[in-house]
Amino acid sequence: MKVLPYRIRLRQPVLASTLGGDPNNVVGLDYLPGSALRALLIKAFSKGQTLDAADPRVRRLFFDHRVRFLNAYPAGFEGRRAIPTPRSWHRIKGDEGSPALDFALNQPASKEGTTYEAVSAPFVNPYEEEGDEKQRAYVIVPEREQSIHTTRDRRAGRARESGDIYGYDALAPAQTFRAAILCDEDADAEILHGLFPPHARIGGGRTAYGEVEITPEPPTRGDDWRELEGVGDEPAIDDDELVVTLLSDTLLRDEHGTLRPDTELLRTVLERRLGNGVALRPRDSFLAAETVGGFNNTWGLPLPQSAAIAMGSVFVYQLARGAATSQQLLALEWTGIGERRAEGFGRLLVNWPTHKSWRIGDWSGPGQRSTAAITSNAGQDMAKAMARRMLASRVERAMTKTAMDHSTDHYRIHRAPPPSQLARLRQTVQEELLEASPSPGCITAFLNDLQRTAMNHLSRARIEGQPLDGWLRGLANGWDETTWQGRLGLRSRDLPKVGEIAPSIDQAQRDLDLLRFLDLVLARAIKDARKGGGT
Hints:
Helix content is about 30%, strand content about 25%. By secondary structure, it is an alpha+beta fold. The strands form eight sheets. Strands 1, 3, 4, 15, 16, 17 and 18 form a seven-stranded antiparallel sheet that branches. It has a seven-stranded mixed sheet with strand order 5-9-10-27-7-6-8, with no helix packed on it. Helix 6 (about 375-405) runs parallel beside helix 12 (about 505-530), helix 7 runs antiparallel to helix 12 (about 505-530) and helix 8 crosses helix 10 (about 470-475). The radius of gyration is 26 Å and the shape is globular. The protein starts with a strand and ends in a 5-residue tail after the last helix. The model is unreliable at about 365-370 (pLDDT under 50).
């Protein structure tokens, strides 16, 4: 078993795009996917010839999981490869200086007025120090470069008079990423090590995008290799629990052939891989789902979109029966789980971290966020329109996630009124949304028209620890900008920009979002009440 580590330095912006989003604004990933890195070596191996995917040697090198091309993540503190931030890490909301607590190992007792939020940076560099109760971790947000383009006439070499304007949000140049190739057979490592091109192109865009410089590092033995540097040669052994942290998106298929992001399905896969009569019982999970796809250059077609467990998800299982040895856990980390492992999917760490608290610091990479100046009036108008659409899309996702999140009871209505009463309120809200200038004052008008019996139902119901009628009257007063961001789980730095142009958020927009948010909360409550879920 051999590991081929290597560094990638971006010489131009790199656009490895995600699915969906605004069609006029392509947003790239925060990392370089293993599928794109595999494609580089396939191109070098084939030397411009057609690759025979049925050839056993070709399949072993690139397609059957015996060679795994890991994602390239940012190189941060001491040049170490970062990992996705565990979704179990939380710190006091609004207090950037507070330590990160790992809720997978230690969930603090709730305190009056203290709320926690997940650490929002996409990557983290843990740095463990012996004898230090609060270990250090640097959060990493890759630098990005935004630019505006117009559709050009290739022959004339200039923009068309009616050319479309579109934007790219790509990884900025002058950043370094680290990746590795895991080879089950030493002979495969020797072949691949000689294929690294010193320069290559990755991702979309034309001549101004995608140029990278690749520097291979000396191969190492994989017997005791672990994907996160500095965590020890072996996973910690715990006779009571098994903590699994996903280091990449993971695709798991159930017995019916369906790809599902599911805690129980992951438990089944882990039990099957560990063997020895190991039985696991889910205790806690910090799961997020992601839709993944891809593009097949040979076919010229996109790959089917699939539901995956998102990188950074953390699962805690109790060992109900049996035990796993260090060698079994190392083998599990080495091979990964699930499908498309040759492209970097299904990577994990077992029984890490072992620390309940981390001191968080920001890692400052080279340069600052770079944005292209937009000087023309037409360009600024288009940029404003794009920023508004991007904001609407982001608000829609945040609103749905916040109001409909069944993993928490935050916006669940307890002891809910009859579904018919909730439906009447929802109808009032929906009718107001059809008005030219929707106003949350419709909530007050609805409450004032209620009979005493109906009002009693609202008074008995609880949401966020207060009577439903009082909560609704609070909404009727409207949201200021701070409340708008807090309710939707947005931060100022999360709000989209096109260049340096940010969308305007006025009171009319906040009133509209408030009513749409209330509509979603009521939709969930009606569904729960009809199922007998209201308590």
